[in-house]
Every structure is written in structure tokens, then in C-alpha cells.
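## Example pair
The file below holds two records. Each record gives the amino-acid sequence first, followed by its C-alpha cell line.
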Amino acid sequence: MTMKRTLLAVFALGFVLVFGNLAIAETIDSLPSWNDGKSKQSIIEFVAKVTEKGSPDFVPLEERIAVFDNDGTLWAEQPMYFQLFFALDRVKELAPQHPEWEGKEPFASLLKGDVKSALAGGEKSILEIVMATHAGMTTTEFEQNVKDWIATAKHPTTKRPYTEMVYQPMLELLTYLRANDFKTFIVSGGGIEFMRPWAEEVYGIPPEQVVGSSIKTKFEMKNGEPVLVRQPELNFIDDKAGKPVGINQHIGRRPIAAFGNSDGDLEMLQWSTAGKGSRFALYVHHTDSIREWAYDRKSSIGRLDKGLDEAQANGWTIVDMKLDWKVIYPYEK
């Protein structure tokens, strides 16, 4: 009897350990920075139905593609796109080599600290600034410039490194999707070679899974070494209708999930949700004027107007940043 009771006790203990641990694992929150609600639940339900074998919505591993806009979706974009801050800092750094800039706009205004006047020329002025600061060097040199800047530059409002201005709930979402065998891509209007040097460390997304705008490059031999030299000429704009084109060229599969925050992402969400089978689209709606910025239909940065209407009409998930996110940035945890 003693031996029998011992065996039963061991069996009972094993049962508790195995099934108790399973129960605990099931209760672990993979999205702890998300408040419980429709947005969080829609994500969990979508992932469950496309990953459960035997489900009519099951999606094979190779087709589990999720695409994310960067500016305003994975990290902040106010008061100006961060890549533009990089370009403005580069103007100051390069100014000693270009004395002619003191009498030439938009550079003259920038050197006086008058960013508003410098950008008054709109896209033409921005293009001039970008070409002057992003071209005329090898791809390796540009990569190092980006790495040096991202390691030291601070956001003008929060005084935090730009890599701390990423959204903690979205970092958790990236991890959650990859834990369920999704391959995650950045598809951004930002420069592809601006994002690649730091995207893997910050987001866990390797360089080959970054899609973005680009300028032309040219193969040359310099001092007996093969290099790629960045030319002052646009190659591809990965924004709006360009995003589905970029996805097709770089990824070669239609995503089953797409995440954005502005009208610039609308075509990407439309393209992704138009495929067969279960699909998911999510817009991050900037509604928190205290912890972040509140903006949508009338904003010159990250405008969400037509996309907001279409999301509501199509039943896409709309994240209310103020209500749906417990914290916004990693340093708030």
C-alpha cells in the first residue's frame, strides 16, 4: 500500500506540474502593453485562426507575411519625420565643405536655424536637402553616417534617443507575430538604406526584410575596390500606390496582415486585404495628446483621412492610442 500511494503521489505531482505549467503558459499575456479591448482581441483572434492546424483559415508558414509602415506606426513621426532630422543635422556637418550654401536656399535658412523657412519650398526643398546629404558617397559610407547619427541624436521634444521613440505595444506585436511563425517586414516611405542599419537591433527585422524609398546607385572601382556610389537621383518612392509595387518587387508574396497609420499606407492595406483567405488590416490612430501627439485628418505629417473612413467602412482594426495602449514608449514601462 505504501508503494502504491507513493506512485499515485508521484503521478499526481507530475500531472500538476505538466498541466499546471500549460495553464500558466496559456495565461501569459503576449501583448502586456495593450489594454484588453476590441483592438487587442482582434489581433489575437486573427493570429489564432490562421495558425491553428485544421482551421479553415489556416495559413502555411511560408505565406504568413506581415508588413508594417515605419513612421508613425513603429516609431513616432512628430514634429517631423526623423529621417529629415538626420538630413538637417548632416547639412550642418557638411556646411564647411559648401560655403556656397550660405547664400543658397533652402540651405541658408537651415544654417540660420530657420527650419520653417527652409521647408517652405515643399517637396522641392526637401528633395534638395536629401540629395545633398544622402548622395555622393558609397553605400558603406552612408551606412556608417546613419549608425553614427542614430547612436547619438536626440529627439527635440523628449530629448530621448530616436531609438527610444519606438512604440512598445508594436514591439510586442512584432515579437508575438514572429512567435507564431510570421515573417515581419518594414514597408516604408522612408529611405531603405536609412532604416536598414538599425532596424534589426531595434525591431528584430533584418536588412533584407526592409522595403523603402531609394536613390540610384552606381557600381564603381575606387582604389582597386568595388563600391556602390549613391547618385543624386531618385530611384523609387515607396509610398501610397508605390507600396504594393515595392511589396511585389521585394517580397514576392501578398501579405496577409498589414499595419499603418496614415493615408500613405492605404494602398498597402487595400492590397493586403484583397487577397484570398483570412486577412487583417490595422491602423494606428494617434489620439493621445498627452503621452504622444493627437492628429489625423488635417495633419501635414501622417495625415489619416481617407484611410480612416475606409477602415471604418471595411471593418479594419483601428487602434485608439489613448485608450488601447497602457504605455507608448519602452522607457515608460
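Second record, same layout:
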Amino acid sequence: MAVQSRPRQALAIAGVLALALGATACSGDSESGLDPDSAECAPYSAFQGHDGESVSIYASIRDAEADLLRQSWKQFEDCTGIEIDYDGSGEFEAQLQVQVDGGNPPDLAFIPQPGLLARFAQANKLKPMTAEQKTLADTNYPADWLKYATVGGQLYGTPLGANVKSFVWYSPKAFAEKGYQVPTTWQQMIEISDKIVAENKKPWCVGLESGEATGWPATDWIEDLMLRTQPAEVYDQWTTHGIPFNDPRVSEAVDRVGSIIKNPKYVNGGYGDVKSLTTTPFQEGGLPILQGQCAMHRQANFYANYLPEGTKIGPDGDIYAFYFPAIDPAKGKPVLGGGEFTVAFTDGPAVQAVRQYLMTGEYANSRAKLGNWITPNNKLDVSNVTQAVDKLSMEVLLDKSAVFRFDGSDLMPAAVGSGTLWKGMVDWVNGKDTKSTLDFVEGSWPK
């Protein structure tokens, strides 16, 4: 992956965008104090001409992460005069459908589920990329990522942020005090867990609550175990219903997950018993590590956004992360990841300007400099990625030996991936058996 942003490339891209938008110089935001003709505003010249217009964006990104988003495009707003009205919601998936069905969609949305993106595209609710936009997308993103936003041969979206989910957060200090080595195999990780249990402590802390999306972190566990118990080809068959959801191979992965997150000896450090998993907000799931109340928390690199301000992340810090180990490292390095895709429900000139700006290297580097974020945009200068776990994530994304797969529930039809599977995971954690749970999800797959 190329990761260097070059001024000549930026100017070429700006020229393409200027032609696409029919851009002309105009005044910027009068309140910003920025001169639209200044050097500071030069990267945004192709997007000017829409002073005073507003563009709405809807997504699931909230709290501190949402604040960083707003910061990342503030200079764009100041230099173009376009106001970006961002709204992040824990009920995003359900409410986006309500808004679209009600004829009041946002201008843009960041959709993390290719399956949901496909449903809107098939219903002719999304605006496909223009030829000029597709050219820019092909220049700035790997083809493997763009295929997730391609429906019926049309490109409908481009990646915004990316994440690597195959991480376990832990306390380096606590591990050092106990003499624990960072595990490189599943068995080593279980042995550490059992040593902690022997001290009458809970080794794992987990949070599954996420509003109407409650249950999604459990699906990440299952996807990671599907990649660790089966070949990647079987994972692909599972996400596309090439094998039934209640296939024995899926049951094996689910039960392996259950050996940790449904094990009353292992969870839920700092919060309570197994049933506390579904009432513990995912944003708070790993915080007991900082208080010494649990040792490990499996969550993506983006979990850094939910740590208290001032938390030091790194191998000598308050908290760090290690790669969620393979069961048999000799069979490869499976990696689970995901990301959001910027899609458009309307196509006015100001909307097109914002949409295209979010595709550029200028935006990718602006957001990366704020921390706690990575992207598959190949114009990213990796020197702008400074947070320790994000650096690990970029190493994983660039590792040609890694077997990368996109989040399985996000690839599935929305009725399953962000519907019955989430509900099924909640019921399963709260006591429902594996067979009944998988039979329920299998029965919900669209015919």
C-alpha cells in the first residue's frame, strides 16, 4: 500500500475535483477569519463555491470519536463556508432506515455495514459515484476495499476510517508484575486466564451494550474465532450463506467464544456475572483494566477513543494491546477488521464537495493527525499515525502475510447481520444454548 501524500498528486486531484464541481473561487466562512485565497485554504480551493450551504451527515460514531471527526473537517468548513451538520447515534442502523423510508434521509452517512449499504443501493436510495469520483476512488483506495461498496457494478461509497478488531487490551504493568509474557498462541492466553482465576480474580471484562445495536461486540468475537478455527474460505461461505448459519463449524467457533465470555470464572471483571455483559456499555467494557479489576479485554484499535483522558497507551503505558492470537499460528495470521463507508442519499453540489473532500489524502491526514484513527486511504502519510495501537494496526494492514477479512456481520444481509444476529447474541449470553441460537439466526436469513 502506498502511504505517501505528494503535493503534485494533491494538485492533480484538486484539478479533477475542480472540473467535477465546476468550482470557482468564492468567499469562505466570514466568522472563521480565514481568507479563502490564503495558502492555508489552498487545499480546499476545489471545493469552494458553496458558502452558506449546509450538509448533514449521520453515523454511529459518538462521544470523543465524534468530537475528533468535527475537528477533522473544521478547516474545510472555515475555508469553504460549508457547514457540516454531524449527528452520531447509538440507534443509527434502525433510525437511518426510518429516515430514509420517511423521505427525510441525511445528505451523507457513514455506514459500517456493506450489507446495509447494498440494501439501500438495491432500493435505489443511494447516489452512485460519478465517473470523476470513481477515478479518484480508484486512485486513493485498494480495490479490495472498494468492492465492499460496489453493488450491481456501480460504486456507491468509499472507506472513511478503518479498524483492526483482532486485539486484546491489557495492562503492561500488571503483566510485568505477575511475570506474564504477552501470549502468542491461544493456549498461552488461556493459561494466563487460568492463573488469574487461581488468584480468585476475573481475567476478562466485556461490554456488549450499545443501544439498539446491543450485542455487536459478541459477533466480533465469533468472527475472530471463525477465522481461527476454520480456513478463510469457510469464513467467506459463512458470511454469504454458502454454508448454513447453524453449520457444526459455526457451532464450534461459537462454543469456543463461550468458553471465555460465558465462563463465570472468566467474566465479568469489575462489573459482575455473565449476565452483566449485556448491560455493560461497550465503551466502558475495558475500563476495569485501569483499576486492576480485570486483565484482558478483546476490542478493536478504536477502543482508545473510550479511554479516560490522559491514559497512556503503549508497551510501558497504562494500557496496551496484543494481537488476538491464533489457535494454530502455523496456519497463518487471521485478522478481522472493518470500517465505515461514506455514501450519499442526495447529490447537490455542496454534498458532492463534502463527499469528495472526504476521499482525499488531505482529509485522511487531517484526521490521522488528531489521533486514534487509521484508514485504507493510500494517500495517508503513516508518520501522522502516532498512537501506539494504531501503529500496530497499520502494521497489520500492511502485513502481506496476514489473512484479512472484513467484519462478517457487516457483510451479511442487514436483517441478519445487524438484526437477528445481534439479538441472538444477547439471548445466547443470557443463557440460550448454542444450537437454538444458531437455528434462530439461520431461520431469519432472507430467502
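Notes on the second record: The chain has two domains: 7-164+338-396, 167-333+411-444. Residues 1-30 have pLDDT under 50 and may be disordered.
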